[in-house]
Design goal:
The protein has about 55 residues and is an alpha+beta fold. The protein has one domain (about 5-55). It contains 2 helices and 2 strands; from the N terminus they run H-E-E-H. The protein has helices spanning about 5, 45-55; strands at about 25-30, 35-40. It has a two-stranded antiparallel ribbon. The longest helix has 12 residues, at about 45-55.
Length: about 55
């Protein structure tokens, strides 16, 4: 089991005062692969990219 919170790293480009949630949507194929990852509600480009990176793990 992957623990997303344990794998998150705050990008240095993101303002330290910025807090919140990034909502990501994606599909899981019949074989269990993740595809079509999209940010549904983002906070900052660097944080959005980090959320996508964690989903790809």
């Amino acid at each position: 089991m992957i623990k997303p919170k344990a794998n998150l790293h705050r990008p240095s480009e993101a303002p330290a005062t910025l807090n919140g949630k990034v909502f990501v949507k994606f599909q899981i194929t019949e074989t269990g692969a993740v595809r079509d990852i999209q940010v549904a509600k983002g906070l900052h480009p660097a944080l959005d990219a980090e959320a996508i990176r964690v989903v790809k793990l």
